[in-house]
Amino acid sequence: MIELPVVESGFLGEWVDRLRTAAGPPVVGILLRGSYARAAATAYSDVDLDVVVTGPTYEAYPAYLAETGVGRLVHISIAMADAASWAAHVAAPADWAFGLPVRSPVRVLWAAGEWRERLDRTEIHQPPAPPELDGLVAGLGKVAGAFAAGDDLGGRLAGPDPAPRRPARVPPPHPPVPPPSRREALDAALSLPAAPPGYREAMLTCLGLTGGSPSDVYSAARRLVSGTVATVRPYAHELAESAGPDLGAALVDGRLDRYLAQLRPHRFT
To answer: Which of 59, 115, 154, 156 has a CB 3.0–4.6 Å from the CB of 28, allowing a cystine?
Structure first.
């Protein structure tokens, strides 16, 4: 069995000291995130550290390969940001969560005096993504356009475009327990109780996680979008707040269905 000395030894403490004294903006907080914070690390996991600094807007993403003391290297991934930017980032929807809310463990390794209270937390809660009907429709258009042009690789590349937007549009929009990781977000996105028939298989096909012909990819993207439109139609007024009044009205008056019917390449008719 390969040892995981990163948390159990003084490894993290040594890196806290190194980062606190490194050249650059003054460091006021260092937090452990990712698989080590979730107690889910393996011998192949990297160490994710958020480093909060003071001063004007600042972002940097240095990375290191460090000796652990047991003859193995570990990849250290660091996200450095000024306090305001860090706070805004952890308060925004997670871009990897398929539109779902996130609740991920975090461990404060060190914080300067008055910053301890501001940074001290055991979890970071990120909200669900807002409705995005326009992006969903545009995603199907990209898939259809590529396949219509005979660009099968481009169609597969565009396949994921409708998929990440899918779960947040189906009421109820998020699972009972917000996922803490991308893998668990995928499981939650594939298991939404209000999803239409065939939704799980269509998601997996669009994301490229299962095989399929160009026709399969197009059909999966179409099922995702059409199923979403049918499911969220009763919420047209709410969606109009983000998509605009015309697209909200089109959801009800039939124009959106007519438009989706146009997005069918002749090769698949």
So the answer is: 115
